[in-house]
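Sorry, explain these C-alpha cells?

***
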Amino acid sequence: MSQEIVREVTFFFHSILMGLIITFVYDWVLILRKLFRHGRFLMSAEDFFYWFACGLAVFYVLYRENSGVLRWFAVMGAALGMFFYKAAVKNRFVYVMSTCIHKIMCLIIRLIQIVLKPAKRLFFAARRFVRFLRVRLKKVREVIKKRLTVFIKTLRMVLCKQ
C-alpha cells in the first residue's frame, strides 16, 4: 500500500477513536448530571464548555492529521465512532457508573456520620453549656448591677449628708 493511503486510513481510525472518546466523555457529563441535579442554566453552561472542548479537540486532530482541512470521511468516522460506542454501551454505562458512585458516596457519607457522631454530641453538649453559662452570667450581671446601684445610692446619701 502506498504511504498516502496508510495515512488516510490512520486518519480515519483516529476520527473513529475521536468519536468514541467524545461520546465517552459526554457519558461522564451525564453521570455527573445524574449524581448532582441542577438547573437548565448550569446544564447549558456544561454543554457549552463540553462542545467547545470537543470543537478544540476536533480542530486539533484535523490540524495535526490533515493540515486543518475538513474531510467528510473524518466527520463520518467520528459519527461512526459515536454510533459504535452507543451501540455497544447504550445507557448501561451511565446507569451502572452513576449507581455505583451514588452508593459509594452514600457509604462515605455514612462513615463520616459515624466518625463524627462523638464530635456532634460534644458540639451539642458544649452549646448547652454555653447557653447555661450565658443565663448564669446574665443573672450574675443583674445581681452585680443591683448591688452597684444600691452602693452608689448609699454613697450619694453619705456624701450628701456631709
Remarks:
- The radius of gyration is 35 Å.
